[in-house]
Design goal:
homodimer, 130 residues, alpha+beta, Alpha-Beta Plaits, 4 strands, globular
Chain lengths: 130, 130
């Protein structure tokens, strides 16, 4: 179950879109339906590598989507459903958000004690690179 | 209240340490005490720019800490309390974690409708750069 929350990524370099957002108190059902729809669509986007996302009980969330290139980030930004949903989000669902686009230069995972190593997914349990 | 959750960052470039983690079910009080202590210490670290963090009810969390340089990320990595707490976390608190270190190349925030713009913090409501 845990592994489903982590993106299984290739070795760097690749790109991260870090989206931090504060939800308002409105439209919970619509918001979730739209988020689920985008999640399904992004899987087929060129260069999409994976996504990790979480939001706490106060409505503050962080989603990090990973792509292979800046070009494919722009392509996803211009995808029709994504663009329409983003505009709706600005109008209806977010009190505030911040986006940072970054180039991932190194990555590592853990822990690497025996109990975990025995059941770890090799794709996400890469050795420390830094 | 919202603005407290968002890091007020300078213009890119700067660096992000993206820490995704799945908590286990143990040591909640100790974990929170250690996290609070690290949060206090990091504020005085050279080159620390800000941090955003959230964790959902299933224990999956994402913390993104921002620094001005790779050198200061390494310095924070080697800070004594941080290093000791990190080792304790690996042993006691995390089912799994992933770390990605990335260079932020562009950033923007929103929404920019009138109602929000009137109260937005100029430091976090930078115009779209991409």
């Amino acid at each position: 179950m845990t592994s489903e929350r982590f993106a299984a990524l290739p070795k760097p370099p690749y790109y991260a879109v870090i989206f931090s957002s504060q939800r308002n108190a409105h439209g919970e059902a619509d918001y979730h339906a739209a988020a689920d729809a985008l999640f399904a669509i992004v899987q087929d986007q060129p260069g999409f590598l994976g996504v990790e996302s979480t939001r706490d009980g106060d409505g503050f969330g962080i989603t990090v989507a990973y792509f292979d290139s800046e070009e494919n980030i722009r392509r996803w930004r211009n995808e029709a459903t994504h663009a329409a949903t983003r505009e709706r989000g600005k109008r209806e669902w977010y009190e505030h958000f911040e986006v940072r686009v970054a180039k991932v230069e190194r990555a590592y995972g853990g822990p690497h004690n025996e109990a975990v190593a025995a059941t770890a997914d090799p794709a996400t349990a890469a050795p420390a690179a830094g």
